[in-house]
TrEMBL record:
Residues 36-215 form the SAC domain. GO terms for biological process: phosphatidylinositol dephosphorylation; regulation of endocytic recycling. Pfam families: Syja_N. InterPro entries: SAC_dom (IPR002013). It comes from the Eukaryota. GO terms for cellular component: clathrin-coated endocytic vesicle; early endosome. It comes from Elysia crispata. This is SAC domain-containing protein.
Length: 262
């Protein structure tokens, strides 16, 4: 090999490396643009710097919940939508990185302060049937306020559009699972009510190419052969953290009828 050929070969290596660098930069730029579009153009992603949006108040007050841990460490992974993006920082296991690891949830959050004006209610009650006002005696009551919040959390497992994601998977995750929590705070009292919804927890699907696609059971083997899902009854994560759940007897001879949409 001549000196000229060596120089040419070296130049080709530089060009190859330069092309790889440009391709990597283009890919990273595209990813950043997609992330900015996803989080800035959508109104359904939320985060909090000091409150765990991924976990209901009931679970936050359970003995297993670590109140003093960093947010990302105590977050419910079912609703931790950006966890996969933070894996490298999580693997560092460095307390200095905790500030940058904020869980993002997809769903809906709204908080309102409501006023209870007892004097206004009493005035309405004092109106006579003829429309005349007859003031009643008694101490004046100051208005009181309470806060009401709605938090809907959509699971990041088996999320998808209608008719494309149905049923349950081998890990027990239901398609399009959503947990909706209503919180009422009337100091010093706080009450919470949680509702959950999801696709019917069996292995089924719909083609999605028809106006009214018929449901179809997908698993040929008996449901008892799926130990991650069936242990004499449903062990789906959808049932966890919500008190007692009714057991589904998979040995029952009765058939399960699937509706046109669920």
């Amino acid at each position: 090999m001549t000196a000229g050929e060596k120089i040419k070969s070296a130049a080709e290596n530089v060009k190859s490396k330069k092309k790889e660098t440009k391709d990597k930069e283009k890919f990273e730029k595209r990813i950043m643009e997609e992330l900015l579009k996803m989080f800035n153009d959508s109104e359904f992603f939320y985060y909090s710097e000091n409150f765990d949006l991924t976990t209901s108040l009931q679970r936050q007050h359970s003995p297993e919940y670590e109140q003093d841990a960093a947010l990302w460490r105590r977050a419910d992974t079912r609703f931790f939508w950006n966890r996969h993006m933070l894996e490298e920082l999580i693997h560092l296991d460095d307390p200095l990185a905790d500030h940058w690891l904020l869980p993002i949830v997809q769903g809906y959050v709204q908080m309102e302060t409501c006023l209870m004006d007892f004097e206004e209610d009493k005035t309405a009650a004092d109106m006579s049937s003829s429309g005349e006002f007859s003031p009643s005696s008694g101490p004046k009551l100051d208005p009181l306020s309470y806060n009401i919040s709605i938090v809907s959390r959509r699971s990041c497992h088996r999320a998808g559009t209608r008719s494309r994601k149905r049923g349950i998977d081998s890990d027990g995750a239901c398609a399009n699972y959503v947990e909706t929590e209503q919180i009422i705070e009337f100091s010093p009292h706080i009450v919470s009510f949680v509702q959950v919804r999801g696709s019917i927890p069996v292995f089924w699907s719909q083609s999605g190419f028809k106006y009214r696609p018929p449901p179809r059971l997908d698993r040929a083997q008996p449901l008892e052969q799926s130990p991650n899902v069936w242990e004499g009854g449903i062990s789906s994560p959808a049932c966890l953290g919500h008190g007692d759940s009714a057991r589904f007897d998979v040995s029952s001879s009765s058939s399960l009828l699937l509706p046109q949409g669920a």
